[in-house]
From TrEMBL:
It comes from Kwoniella dendrophila CBS 6074. The keyword Lipid metabolism does not apply. This is Aminotransferase class I/classII large domain-containing protein. Pfam families: Aminotran_1_2. GO terms for biological process: amino acid metabolic process. Belongs to the class-I pyridoxal-phosphate-dependent aminotransferase family. Residues 126-471 form the Aminotransferase class I/classII large domain. Keywords: Pyridoxal phosphate.
Amino acid sequence: MVQVDLTDSTADLAHKYEALAVNSNVGNAQAQTTKGIYSSIWADHINDYRGIRMSDRALLCPTHAHAEKLDSLMSSLYDVHGNPEGTINIGVAENGLMVREYIEQYFGTALKKGLNPVDMGYGDRVSGSARLKNAIADLWNENFDPVEPVLPEHIITSTGATGILDQLTWAIVNPGDAILIAAPFYAGFDVNMVTRSGSHIVPVQIPDDEKAYLPESLQAFEDAYQKCKAEGRDVKAVLLCNPSNPLGQIYPRETLLEYAKFTERHNLHLISDEIYALSVYDNPNVTNSPNFISFLNLDVEKETGEKFDKGRVHIVYSFSKDFGANGLRVGCIISQNNPFLLRTMLHTCFLMKVSSPADVLLSELLNDKPKFKAMIAENRRRLTAASSYCREWFMARGIPAMDTVAGHFMFVDFREHLNITTFDQEKALWQRLMDVGVYTATGGAYHWKYPGFLRITFSVDQELLKVGLQRMEKELDLKISQ
Ligand SMILES: Cc1ncc(COP(=O)(O)O)c(C=O)c1O
């Protein structure tokens, strides 16, 4: 049996795929999802399956296990009245800090106001309604100062950034081609960008000190590129996550320009995932953080004096994080100089655009500009307060928590406190917390090179966070240090 879990690196997965393909009988799915780590209503069916033959791809799919893990988690979530023993989810990036305001002040009435008869049909565009695409173009033009104004025709919408990454990767890589991403990175990339396209993600281990965000960090990309070439693997793209998930940091302008030069030198696509663009907040411990700059704000040729093909730049954005709306599933790509790419993505599955109710809710919100700005500013204040609370909580108990200035999470370092030196020990810690109803995310799942870290989401409902931390305190016998 081939056992795989979420903390496997992509390279491990690739080996296990091969083993799986060799071991599997025609028509019988022999994949086994890791048991014991979580319960899955699907895994038993997969192991017992002896039915009609599936595609080879289907044989490989269960090994990712990501979706099953989330499915299992969501079915048993904590509710103070309905399910007080349920699991507290501080492992997924969800922003509950403004949810009540959004529902009460906007979403409750927006549907009634904005929903038109045309919304009950397929609408007025297959790539997203004109209403939403105009609102997204305005959002970008008014908040991120793009060199070239964003127009509705630069945009395609889909079911969250997840849908966009899936369609985008399918369009730009051939199976086996590599995509380079600075590690640590969002664990979902290993699934969303790999499963359908067959791409091979290469985690690039950039320096983990203050040099991590400097232009010199691109040397690690050059090394990774040359290694791929020596192995006979085509590199097709670089993904930059700015602000970074999971480190919650922002890249300075000079480093973004270095990324641009690197992709031009090797003729690569440059995917800039800017999903946390408006979730930048103050952290009194960090006084020298650069401001967030969208890649569209760079005039690469003018600033570097070197030729640059703007058709390689694709911005990925979604309303899940900055607007606390994971559930609405609204994402988009903005690619200003590559209509061929947008057309191809559209052709992978037309009408995969945002559903009308979600479209109406967000368009109404974006078009109420003064109020929308006030909501974003309040969200930032709450992110500052929530992140400080969480960081100080761990620090007071002698557990180092990393400083962050963006996003919804922070890495927390249990190495010393629990004497963790291996990824197996890190997984055991994760399981221990899971057993007492606290879902966190392991550093290993993000390709972080040091075992012993958990990524904690601090932006959930603050009462929920407190219950999760209390459970953790009890289980791990954490004590306030003098
Ligand atoms: C960096 C990053 N990109 C993409 C996604 C996917 O977001 P969604 O599909 O909800 O838009 C996430 C979710 O956590 C993320 O952190």
